[in-house]
Structures are given as structure tokens and as C-alpha cells.
Amino acid sequence: MNRDEIRAFLPHREPMLLMDEAFPVNPGEASGSCLIHGDEFFLQGHFPGFPVVPGVILCEMIAQSAGVLVMDKLKEGFLPLFTGIEKVRFRRMVRPGDRVVTQCRMLRASGSLLKVAGEARVNGELCADGVFLLMLTKGGT
């Protein structure tokens, strides 16, 4: 799925819509990718002269690609909210010109609570990995 197709189910919008592509891989697994151009808002001050993608942005990329796993619920108007992040490790810097490829796997879904294992790689090299806890809640006021 390209960005337009992602917008059809993921509630995020620019500048927080980070993924260029997202797609199911196998039942309970999804992948995505994002090319870091260098002009992204999160690189403006992180760090002048040596831009590095913040770890929290890598976590958000993984979580956004996990949206594919609950696409039907998101199309119904549910919002995916972080409730926790466990065992996250950052193992490699991500810089302009890098294409981040995410992989995620549903560990458990219980009602509106999700537990997803995810990772981000550049050229096959692990950049970040961890377990992401999400809650689906109805959007609106």
C-alpha cells in the first residue's frame, strides 16, 4: 500500500504520517518502509550538522506499520494509542538517505489491547526493536 492507501485506514496525517508503504506479510505480520529525506520536521534540531532520526520516531514508524494488523478496526474510526513500550533497544543510527524497513508481528490481541513485537532495519541491519503495547479507542470528542 502506498501513502494514499495508508491514509484510507491510518488516522495519522502529515507531518506525523511517517510510512511511505505498509502491507500485510502473513497472517498476524506486517511490514512497512520510510525513506528519510533529510527535511523531516524531527531532524530540524536533532542534531544540527549531523541529523539523526530520534528513537521515538523509529518506535512510531513500527507502530504505524502495525496498523495494517488492525486495519479493519481503524477503518471503523478506532485510534491506536500507545499504552506502553517494552524492551526497546536502539542499535544503529538512522540518517538522511536511509530507507527504514519495519517488521511487526502480533503477539496478542485481547479486546481493544494489542501486544506487537516490532523492529526497524536499514539495509538489513537492525536499528531498533521492542514490544509495543497499544489500545484501540474510539476517536472523536
Written overview of the protein:
By secondary structure, the protein is of the alpha+beta class. Strands 1-2-4-5-6-3 form a 6-stranded antiparallel sheet. It is globular, with a radius of gyration of 14 Å. The chain starts with a helix and ends with a strand. The model has no long low-confidence stretch (mean pLDDT 96).
Chain-wise SSE layout:
Elements: H1 3-7, E1 21-26, E2 29-35, H2 55-66, H3 71-75, E3 78-90, E4 99-110, E5 113-122, E6 125-138
Antiparallel strand pairs: 1-2, 2-4, 3-6, 4-5, 5-6
Note the main sheet: 6 strands, antiparallel
Succession of helices and strands: HEEHHEEEE
Approximately what portion of the residues adopt beta-strand conformation?
35-45%
Structural class: alpha+beta
Please estimate the helix content: 10-25%
- Mean of residue pLDDT values: 96
Low-pLDDT ranges = none
Give me the Rg, rounded. 14 Å
What kind of oligomer do you see?
single chain
